[in-house]
Amino acid sequence: MDYAGFTIRDIGLLSAFFSAVQLLAEVPTGYFADRIGRIASIRVGAVLAAIATTIYVFVHHKTGIYIGVMFEALGYAFMGGAGQALIHDSLVVKKLEHEYTKIMSRAQSVSLIANAILIAIVPMTYAINPAYPFAIGTLAYLLLLITALFMHDVKRSISVVKLKIPILKQIVGKKNLLLFGLSYGVIAALYTSQADTFNVALREYGFRTNLIGWIYGIASVVGAAIGPIVHYLHRIKLSRYLLVDLCILIMMSAAAYTGSPYLLGGMMVISISFWRYRNIIYQSYLLNIYPTAYKATLVSAMSNLEQLNAIWLPLVITGAIHLTTIPIGLGLIGLFSLGVAPVFYYSSLKFFHRDPTPVALANQSVSVV
Questions:
Q1: Less packed terminus of the chain by CB within 10 Å, N or C?
Q2: Shortest CA distance to 340 belongs to which of 197, 171, 173, 191?
Q3: How much is the pTM?
């Protein structure tokens, strides 16, 4: 961002733009994966992501960065729900869908090992030439494309039927569903929307810029180490898991408020390691509630709840910092998180355990095709 001349406000706007593109693309790309094919969607996503990183290599002005971010957001939208749906379909065929959390967490663990290696290499190449890390990214996406060319879709046990979307009146009328959707999106976006500002905070607190990458590398190693046991989180009571989820988020803001780079860095390691897996747990709950052939669309819709809030939250976060200071601004965001937490906790318990409306809504929908 420094290389392109971005300020902290520019970073907030760029993050909001990324989220807006993903918000518009998530469900259509998920529907593409469900109707055309999961593998086809992954291939398209890999091509778009490779185009994005190639743009970053050769273009270093703001307009070019925005174009690259648009391609990157589209690429992630095509790959995200399709990959998760492909894995769930494979498990259904093998009658192992109850192992979704376990398999996904172990797959994430393996990917984090590769991620840690890349993170260790990238900072060194940046010192040589700022364009080199993006060139490595292009090579990685091309490797993914080549791999996807040798993959094939899994035959689905549930036949593809007409896509049905709940009537807005029915959703609004179901308090637990509405509260969960609104609060889940805010909490999920709070996890991701503060990442860039935490990096800026570390530099302002005196942490060496070339060492920030090591925080993400250590987080990847820790994440890889806990991956094989993460599925046990799905076996504990949901009420306890929710408390862990919310405590980690709020402690992040508390650490940022102290102004200590080491406390913030330590909490970033814990938060990033946990964040790598948190969506897997919630996806598992959701896929169990909605037994549907449109898994990619469903996972994408869940991601949309996050992206909707990731449009305005970066603007609020960077605005709070701009009007005050980094510690106070991030502290205010922590207070906001504390206010949303009880709503998310209550609505999640009602939505996943005691409220039968999701299945009912699936049967009381309006066909759109």
A1: C
A2: 191
A3: 0.67
How many Å from the N-terminal Cα to the C-terminal Cα in the chain? 43
Count H helices, E strands: the chain? 14, 2
H or E element, residue 366: strand 365-367
- Distance, CA of 291 to CA of 305 (rounded, Å): 20
Express each pLDDT in 3-18 by its tens digit.
556 776 787 788 888 8
Q: Which two tokens stand for residue 36?
A: 């055309």
* Residues in Cβ contact with 99 at an 8 Å cutoff, skipping those fewer than 6 apart: 91, 231
Directed axis angle between helix 8-35 and helix 62-93, to 10°?
40
Contact between residue 219 and residue 268 where contact means Cβ atoms under 8 Å apart = yes
**Among candidates 257, 261, 278, which has minimal Cα distance to 325?**
257
CA distances from 118 to 36, 48, 76, 217, 218 (A): 33, 20, 19, 8, 12
What's the pLDDT at 170? 43
